[in-house]
Amino acid sequence: MILANTRARLQRADAQLAVRLVARARGVPAEQVAHRLADEGLDAVLDDPVLPPALRREPDAAAASLPLFSYVMVRHALRDTGADDRPLADYVASILLHFGLRQRARQLGAHDDATYDTLAAIADELDAADAPRAFLARAHLGNYALWLSGLFPDHIEQRRWRRGGPDLRYFESMGQRGFRLAADHRLAHEHGLGPVLATAAEQFGVVRVALNQVSDRLLFPHVHTPERLMRQVRDLFPRDVRPES
Description:
Shape: globular
Number of helices: 14
Strand content: under 5%
Largest sheet: none
Number of strands: 0
């Protein structure tokens, strides 16, 4: 089960690195940023807008842990698209960390032998007789739809134009459905996931756009295709530019 716990995984070394990077980027003594950390908490430093570029460019940032790097990049991308919700950023960063491991993106659980390659296959498990499995399937439908449409939108767009595959709206619809159903499940409330899953369902499109920005900048920065340009234009002007059916 994926939890919104990326910030909880941060260590003292992560906080110290963030303080040094922010201080250097702002040209102030590290002690000044450390006092801010002590007075306002770690979130004040993690939310500083100079931290993401520092993590990408400063040599010292090579020591950053994956939880620190993932959370900061997701948090700031979400804020840039209007989603200023820390638990949501925490949860989305956890998806990236979990799904980056082996075949985890294709499994309902870390120890599940079955693998799923399509959203439709996952949807077949939504009403499983086993309550935990039904909950995992619902959450995974949302997680997997977000993972694919968030980090690999160019692949989706290319398949759509060249092979008639589903478009990003299909992934958004399926992801919203999964998160909404998962949020209403009793196990979501037992594990404290109800609110963040409900928020993920409500703001799926915003989160998808934020992850697209992370993907465009960090994972595939040198891709320049008509499909990417059209997708970026649609996301900038969603009401004025719509994909062809």
